[in-house]
């Protein structure tokens, strides 16, 4: 079964850390208020990997990612990470034609969906490796991997 994933760019994590699955999924804007800077939503098919380039908000200090699971258990349905401080120039919209492999200075977050949980696998500059959208080299680990 495909899993819908939401990625939140945040100023602070306190409200996310205290939120229930239902409240965060149904009304993130109302719950997170001024802490919420941006939301991205996409679907990860079973046994497939996807990559997404998401423009970073210059005010974002944290990322929370949650999966829409049928049976969310404990807090395994979400993961949080701290973003490194970057200059505003690194947060600009990347033109379509330039999308492809990330630059060596691009920050990448990689997550794994397994069963009813989502885990952060790796964070850091791409160092010339990795993916953004559809990478023709499947041997490299994509940002989102669904494993059933």
- Helix and strand composition category: mainly beta
In terms of per-residue confidence, which ranges show pLDDT below 50 for 5 or more consecutive residues?
A: 127-142
Q: Summarize the biggest pleated sheet.
A: 4 strands, antiparallel
Helix content: 10-25%
Cα-to-Cα separation, first versus last residue: 9 Å
Global mean pLDDT: 79
- The number of distinct β-strands equals 8
H/I helix tally: 3
| Beta-strand content bin | 25-35%
H/E series, N to C? EHHHEEEEEEE
Overall 3D geometry? Answer: globular
The neighbouring-strand order within the major sheet is 2-1-4-5
**What Rg do the Cα atoms give?**
15 Å
Outline:
The chain has helices at 14-18, 21-26, 28-32; strands spanning 3-10, 36-44, 49-50, 62-67, 78-82, 107-114, 117-125, 144-147.
Question: Keyphrases for this structure?
Answer:
mainly beta; 4-stranded antiparallel beta sheet
Indicate the topology:
Layout: E1 3-10, H1 14-18, H2 21-26, H3 28-32, E2 36-44, E3 49-50, E4 62-67, E5 78-82, E6 107-114, E7 117-125, E8 144-147
Parallel strand pairs: 6-8
Antiparallel strand pairs: 1-2, 1-4, 3-8, 4-5, 6-7
């Amino acid at each position: 079964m495909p899993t819908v994933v939401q990625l939140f760019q945040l100023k602070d994590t306190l409200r996310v850390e205290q939120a229930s699955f239902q409240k965060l999924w149904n009304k993130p804007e109302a719950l997170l208020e001024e802490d919420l800077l941006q939301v991205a939503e996409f679907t990860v098919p079973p046994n497939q990997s996807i990559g997404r380039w998401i423009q970073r908000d210059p005010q974002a200090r944290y990322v929370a990612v949650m999966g829409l699971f049928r049976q969310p258990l404990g807090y395994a349905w979400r993961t949080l990470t701290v973003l490194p401080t970057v200059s505003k120039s690194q947060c600009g919209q990347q033109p379509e034609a330039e999308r492809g492999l990330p630059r060596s200075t691009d920050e990448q977050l990689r997550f794994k969906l397994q069963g009813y949980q989502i885990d952060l696998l790796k964070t850091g500059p791409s160092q010339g490796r990795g993916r953004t959208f559809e990478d023709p080299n499947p041997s490299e680990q994509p940002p989102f991997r669904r494993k059933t």
